[in-house]
Amino acid sequence: MHLDNYTLGSYTPGAPYWKQLLWHFFGSPLVESSWLPFSKIKVWVLRSFGASIGKGVRIKTGVRVKFPWRLTVGNFVWIGENAWIDNLAPVVIESHVCLSQGVYLCTGNHDWYHPDFRLIPAPIHIHESSWIAAKSVIGPGVTVGQGAVLTLGGVTGRSLEPMIIYAGNPAQPIKNRVRAKVEDVLQISAQDEFIHVRHVFDTDLTEVDIRVRTPKNDEQFE
């Protein structure tokens, strides 16, 4: 390859040049700033530049967004410190997703066979109730299924199945993420002054006895 012949091919950033400049010099520094820790202001700035963001979204300091006009975020999403959303292509983050510290969402690739090393962008879609743990990397074209987990430092260039926990580089499935029913997790029976709590994780049964003193009629909890 010859980088002096590098080309974007048919790719366009999706916004006029003046808007890109405003974002680069004014919008992006405000979102990334550590002296402006308020999520509501960061959300307002992102929306002003074309991002679609729901309610209850928390954005920590150091967060970087390449192009806000190609970002869609649902409700009650957490984006941790120093997360980098490198969205040359559209990124969709559905509701109740947690992106932990230092997560990198990469939507850009290159054609290493072509002499001009041309850019190949592809979107990322993270479905509801997923957790991308700290320092994890998600590559272009990846879809993260509902409820999936990518553990600490995981790296994936392939889509993740729903309700599966993945780990490693490249990420591999390690176990199911079980969504237990309340009646299975807590089976409470009043016996003397004790509460017997039974926790069920997957197929293993672990019993934990928690001693709770019942207050007398003339006592109150503070």
TrEMBL record:
Q: GO molecular function terms here?
A: O-acyltransferase activity; structural constituent of carboxysome shell
GO cellular-component term (any): carboxysome
Q: Which Gene3D superfamilies match?
A: Hexapeptide repeat proteins
Q: Which SUPFAM superfamilies match?
A: Trimeric LpxA-like enzymes
Q: From which domain of life does this come? A: Bacteria
**Which UniProt keywords are given for this protein, alphabetically ordered?**
Transferase
InterPro entries attached here?
Hexapeptide_acetyltransf (IPR051159), Trimer_LpxA-like_sf (IPR011004)
Keyword Ribonucleoprotein applies: no
UniProt xrefs under PANTHER family: ACETYLTRANSFERASE C18B11.09C-RELATED, SIALIC ACID SYNTHASE-RELATED
Family of the protein in this entry: Belongs to the transferase hexapeptide repeat family.
This chain belongs to the protein called: WcaF family extracellular polysaccharide biosynthesis acetyltransferase
Which source organism? Mojavia pulchra JT2-VF2
Its ancestry begins with: Bacteria, Bacillati, Cyanobacteriota, Cyanophyceae, Nostocales
